[in-house]
Every structure is written in C-alpha cells, then in structure tokens.
Design brief:
It is a single chain. It contains 1 helix and no strands. By secondary structure, the protein is mostly helical. It is rod-shaped, with a radius of gyration of 22 Å.
Length: 41
C-alpha cells in the first residue's frame, strides 16, 4: 500500500509540473495582432 501511495504521489506531482509548463507556454504565446484599415489609400 505504501508503494502504491508513493507512486501515485509522484505521478500526481509530475502531472502538475507538466501541466504548469504547458499552461505557462500557452500563456507566453503572443496573440497575432490583426490590423484593419478604415479606407484604402
């Protein structure tokens, strides 16, 4: 039982770490700016 609990906790911590990296990566991506022109030259 202790072995199962230890493996479960390690997987949980690893999953949280990977999710945090994924979240920060998506947050750091810049949104492309779209410019609209009111009237042509």
């Amino acid at each position: 039982m202790k072995r199962f609990l230890r493996i479960f906790v390690l997987i949980l911590i690893g999953g949280i770490f990977i999710y945090t990296l994924y979240y920060l990566y998506n947050k750091s991506k810049k949104v492309p700016e779209i410019y609209t022109t009111e009237k042509p030259f």
